[in-house]
Structures are given as C-alpha cells and as structure tokens.
Amino acid sequence: NEQFNKVEVFKVRVTEEEEQLKARCEEVEEHLQEQQQIQSDLRWELSQKSVLVGALRASLKEKERHFLEELKHRSHRTTVLNTELQKQTEAAAYLSFQLHSAKQKLHQQRQQQQHRRPAPSGVDKPPVHPSPQASASSPTTIKPKRRSSSRSSSHLHTERARECVPRERVTGPEEPMAMPDPALFFYPYRHRSRIRPPHRHALQEAEGEESEELDQGASVSRLATTVAKATATTVSTTENNVE
Prior knowledge:
This protein is mainly α. The chain has two domains: about 1-115; about 130-185 and about 200-235. Helix content is about 75%, strand content about 0%. It is built from five helices and no strands. It has helices at about 1-115, 130-135, 150-165, 165-170, 200-240. The longest helix has about 120 residues, at about 1-115. The model is unreliable at about 120-125, about 130-145 and about 190-195 (pLDDT under 50).
C-alpha cells in the first residue's frame, strides 16, 4: 500500500509538472508568435522605407543633373557676356580716343584760325575832355585787358601735355595728345561736365572788356558834366554875393 501511495503521489507530481510545462510552452509560443508578428511588421516598414529612399535618391540625382546643366549653361553665358563686354569696352575706348583726337584737331584748327584772323578795329569813340578839377578830385582806374588769357591757358595746357609725353614725341612734327581714361565708360550714369569751347570764352571776355570800357567812358562823361554844373553854380553864387 505504501508503495502504491508513493506511485500515486509521483504520478500526481508528474502530471502537475507536465501541466506547468505545457502552460509555459503555450506562453512561450504566444510570445514567439508576437515576436514574429513584430518582425514581419518591421520588415514591411523597412521595405517601404527602402522604396522611399530609392525614390529620394533618384530625385536627388535628377536635381543634381539639372543643376549641373544649368550651371554649365550659365557659365557659358557669363563667358559670352564677358567677351562682349570686353569688346564693347575696347570699342568705347577706341571711340573715346578718336573723339579726343578729333577735339584736339578741331581746337588746334580754331586756334590757328584765331591767330590768322586780323585783330578787330576798335570802335570810334568820341574823345572826352574832363576838367582838371574832376581829374584831380576823382582819378579813374582803368582795368588791364585780359584778351590774352585764353591764349595763355591754351599754352599752359599744351605745356602740361608736353611734360607727360616723352621727348622724342614732343620734338616730332605732330602735337602730343593725352589719352582719355577708358574707365569712364564703365559707369553709364556718371555725370560728365560739358567743356565749353575756348573761342566763345575769349569772345565773351572781349565783349565784357568793351562793355567795361564803354561804362567807364560814360561814367567819366557824367562826372565831368556834374563837376561843370557844380562849378557854374558856385561861380554864380559868388558873383551874386559880390554884387
């Protein structure tokens, strides 16, 4: 009986252990299924992300290709524009040099014409004989004439130009000419002052001097008449007092 009881107890223990092991196996199987499901989900996400990465790589390659083509086109365009700009600057410098040389030649021709032209005869003015009292009381100051200012300025300009030119060119048959600055054409909105021709300035100075001489003659004549009237009035008053 005791052995039978021991066997029964052993069987009960074995069945309990089997049930425990079976429960643990079921739990492990459930956990394994969950892990497999998670792995399948992760694999699907990984495949989706790999597809997205491939699409992004393709788009980046396409953008890089377009960027390189645009860069190549723009570099070619900049080189073409630089060559055109260089040609235009060279043409502008050449035209400025031609214009400056033409102005110099025209200026020299005008100076030669002014030298060859005879001096204009002065306008006949009526002689003015002021009284000695007027000449003693108010001496008139006559300004010196400035007709040779334009010639002296042109001569000074040519002398400065000669200093900037080598000796073998100065002693040559042609007159030296200064090269204009081509950098003026790099700034299209830069203000350049207009140069007035020297012959107008000389004519204006000559006209101003003639007008000043006429004004001085008129003022002297008016002063002489006023002095004569004053002397006449003083003489008449003294005669009346004597009588």
